Amino acid sequence: MKDLFGKALLDFYHNNYTEDLITSTNISGDDVLPLPYLFRSYSEMPKLEQKALQLAKGKVLDVGCGSGSHSLYLQDKGMDVKAIDISEGAIEVAKLRGIVQAELKDILNETETFDTIILLMNGTGIFQELSQVSHYLKHIKSLLRPNGQILVDSSDIQYMYEDEDGGLWIDTNANYYGELDYFLSYKGEDEVPMKWLYLDFERLHLACNTVNLKCDKVIDGEHHDYLAKIYI
Fold first, then answer.
1. Averaged pLDDT for residues 142-169
2. Which end of the chain, N or C, is surrounded by fewer C-beta atoms within 10 Å?
3. Which of 29, 30, 32, 79 is nearest to 54 (CA)?
4. Which residues are listed as membrane-spanning (predicted)?
């Protein structure tokens, strides 16, 4: 990967902000991801993220931390937070912003244990495919301390397949409709496409059951999204 995401974060942090990130998927056209949004304060966050941060307790792992906005909020409240991301630029920015524990790491390579693990901004995206969900959950479960919790948000994107009459054009012979190819570009460069998973709550709940985890919906968002709490 070229780490265009990390480059964009670094540009913004160093006051070289001239363009936003452009994202698209195999079922949607270009969309602008404004860089200031990735540096938002608690008051600017959606209610799902605010609720997750309110529920965080003990030692926290922030998975896919990006610029570190969630970690920074928790750290400023005096909490013990570790932030991880697979973007080198993101981790550099998180450290520059003052995150004490920020590490370039894939969640599958994490070995410490935590009281709270947060996966926000469509946290199920890192699972990539429906077939991988149980594998990831099993590993994340191994990182939970007694009475620990996983707080994750995602969306049911079935609405993206609706026609004007409300009918669905989902190919029942194809892969799960939440499995997308995700494309990102920045300043004329294209990132290597990656797989990204949007997971409806029912399927998340089912996957949790298969690895002996409990799963409760905490709150619904404003646009087909939700926050879930997963625990042993």
1. 87
2. N
3. 79
4. none
